[in-house]
Every structure is written in structure tokens, then in C-alpha cells.
Amino acid sequence: MKTATHCAVLIFVAIIAACSAADGGERPYRRSFINPYPRYKFYEDGVDPGEPLFLTPLIHNSSMPREQVQKLARVVGSQYHGVESYAGYLTVDKGFNSNMFFWYFPAQQDADYAPVVLWLQGGPGASSLFGLFTENGPLELDAHSKLQKRNYTWSKTHNLIYIDNPVGTGFSFTDKDEGYAKNEKDVGRNLHEAVMQLYELFQWSNSSGFWVTGESYAGKYVPALAYHIHQVQNAIETRVYVPLKGVAIGNGLSDPLHQLKYGDYLYQLGLIDDNGLQSFHAAEEKGASCIKNHDMECAFNVFDSLINGDLTNGSLFSNLTGYNWYYNYLKTHDNSGENLGQFLQAGETRRSIHVGNKPFHDLDKENKVELHLKHDVMDSVAPWIAELLAHYTVCIYSGQLDIIVAYPLTRNYLKQLKFPGSDRYRVAPREIWRIGGEVAGYVKHAGHLVEIMVRNAGHMAPHDQPKWLYEMITHLTHYKH
């Protein structure tokens, strides 16, 4: 009886505190419950960082050969083990001086014909360089903070791009508050401009196709860019044609109303009991009510209190389970180190990737990207995904062990989608996905939708199962579906 009373009081306090915060007054920044990425402290080593390279004026200078601009953007340094890459800034909004940082790795095999793949990190406010060095890029940091080549990298068979997105993330920046994205339309527009400039600079073959990929909060970013490209290119003749073929979203938050239903999932895992389930259901109903009333800040605060717990004495999730890590239910806490943050901010790295002394926007401090997107977090991009499914391949993959955007939660929203093939999806057989004799996961196909559950992987599936995810993306981009 005491346990039930404690849970009821706890969730009541969480909801009241959350909604009170939404109703009045400013509150200090606290990271989003959806943001799994490490916080990087400021680091400076005194080495000359060089000057930032702004490529847009050079790209649009008709008297400057494209090869010369590429040479300026080339990343040079013995620490990169001869891996070819290019980096610099692309101006996406001249009025606000909004600039996006990119790092591009040509395919190791048949670069002239390889598909172009863009990777976007989530957050909101997490640098895509996290994905580069910890998930699917050609390089990774070892225990001694030295770069080594990765065994399984998406750049083996893809022209692979990383962009710090939205503006204000990582090395990307803007001079005006108005330059920050307020919604996913802003995100899609800025990314499209950056991608068009990259096509102008590197002139990839249209026949190889363009794919947008990402994870976590990029469950919003990926469809935002793809939908913007789809809408604009079907309405007007754009300066540059982007040959969009499809998208791949890993453990992505796309439709909070139907995804953020943790209670039943945690109960089935044995992490909460009947009393805890009742408390979760109460909060989830409150959050859903906020969303339906278009009170997105209230909805954010309710779910944040369920998982993050900054407004209360710990979150309901943490108090009931003892966990403070919800990106792999086999782990109760995070062991992330600081080596990546120090590497990225070192003068030698800065000089080589042409960012100069521009700040690396540190998630340990005020995250302006998230603050400007706070009303976007609980909104849905499901209608955009449904529209994309009528024209392009859409792969939704989920790590089996994730909690924050778990496979059953993603299935909840996919079953609500209305798209060509949606009726077939609900009854489609589930197939065993094998690689090299191992069971890598399970797959369902319906129309243009490919749904994959990746076995023994958490929120960051490419990190946990690099071989399987490399095989997945290569099959997705190189073969018809």
C-alpha cells in the first residue's frame, strides 16, 4: 500500500510541477529527455586553430574552378591515416549569417557512382560528429584518444556527409536569434540549401541517388529535409536538383502522441510493477491530453518529468527502476568519456577541418537549439512520413534494447500511418534477417516501408552492431525494394 501511495504522489507531483513550469515563468535550461548524447566541456590547448573556411562565396564564384574550391576544403593531417575528406562552412541564410558545418568522406569504392548519404544526429542540439566518430564514420577514437580506422564504415560504399544541424549545433552557428530553427520547416529549408551547395561543389551523379539518414531526434530532421526536397522540387525548378531516393531513421522520435507510451513496455520488461504501470498511464494520459490541446510545452514537461526528473526528486522512471540511462536496458548508467570533445576542440583538429576559433556549441551549457525548438519536440511529422512513403523508400530501424524510443513504441505510430501499403503493413509477415548465419534482427516490408528490428542493439544501433547496420544501409541504397 505504501508503494502504491508513493507512486501516486510522485507522479502527481511530477505532473503538477511540469504543468506549473509550462504555465508561468522562465526556468533554467535542462537537457531534453530524448537527448542521449554526452556533454562536452570547453577545451582549449593553445594550438593555433587557423581560420574558418566559408565556402559559399567560392562555390558561387563562376571564375573559380570547382577543383580549386575542393582543394581548399580538403582535410589534411597525418592523424587521419590517409582517409580523404573535406570540411568547411556553408552559408544557408546570409541575412542572419547562419552557417552550417559539414564534413564529407568520399566513398572508398566507386566514389563516382556511389550513393550520397547524409547522416544527421538528434538531440536536439547534438553534433553529427558524434555519429562520425562513434557510429558509422571511417575513423574512431581509441582508448588513448588516437584516431584509428573503423572496420565497418558506411563510407566504404557511400559518399558520406555529416552536417551539424540545426544551425547552432556543434560547429554550426548563426549571428542572430532569428537564425535558429523554430520548427521542422526551418530545419528542412536550411538543410536543403546546404545540400544543394554540396551538390554544386562535388557534382555527384544524379543516377546514384541521395539518402537522408539519422537517429533519435533526427526522426524529425530526416523527414523534414526529405519532405522539403519533395515539396519544393515538385513545385518549382530549383537551382540544383537533389535526386532523393529514400530515408533511414534509427530509433527516431517522429510522432510523440503515439510513441511515448512507456508504461506497458517497461511493465513487460519487468522494470516496473502494477503500481508503477498505473502511475505511468496517468502521466501518459496527461501528456497526450496536452498534445491534443496543442499545449506542446506542457506535454514536453510531463514526459520530461517522467524520464528526466529535473523538476522533481528524480524522475518516475529513475525512482522506480534505479536506472539513469535509458538508451539500452542492459545498462543502468552511462560511461561516456570526454575524449571526443577534447579531440574536436583541439587546435590541430580545428585547423584541419577549417573551423578556426568558432565555438563548438557545448551541450553541457545552454542549448539554444533546443530552447528555440521546445514547442517542436512534442509535435508530429507523421503526415510528412506518410507522404514520403507514397514516393520513396522509408526505412525505420530500431535497436531491440532501447527504452527512450523503443521498437514497440515506434510500431505504435507506424500502425497509425495512412499510406499506400498501410493495410498490407498491418498484416505483413515478419521475416528473420540473417547476416553470415547470425540472426541480425527481423524485417517487415509493405509498399515503400521497410521496418527493421536490430537484435542486441540499443538507441545507437550503428555503434552496437556496426557490421549489421553497414549491411543494412548498403542493401537499402544499392538494391531495389
From TrEMBL:
Gene3D superfamilies: alpha/beta hydrolase. GO terms for molecular function: serine-type carboxypeptidase activity. Pfam families: Peptidase_S10. GO terms for biological process: proteolysis. It is an enzyme of class 3 (hydrolase). InterPro entries: AB_hydrolase_fold (IPR029058), Peptidase_S10 (IPR001563), Ser_caboxypep_his_AS (IPR033124), Ser_caboxypep_ser_AS (IPR018202). Its EC number is 3.4.16.-. Residues 1-21 form the signal peptide. Keywords: Carboxypeptidase, Glycoprotein, Hydrolase, Protease, Signal. Belongs to the peptidase S10 family. This is Carboxypeptidase. It comes from Drosophila madeirensis. The lineage of its organism: Eukaryota, Metazoa, Ecdysozoa, Arthropoda, Hexapoda.
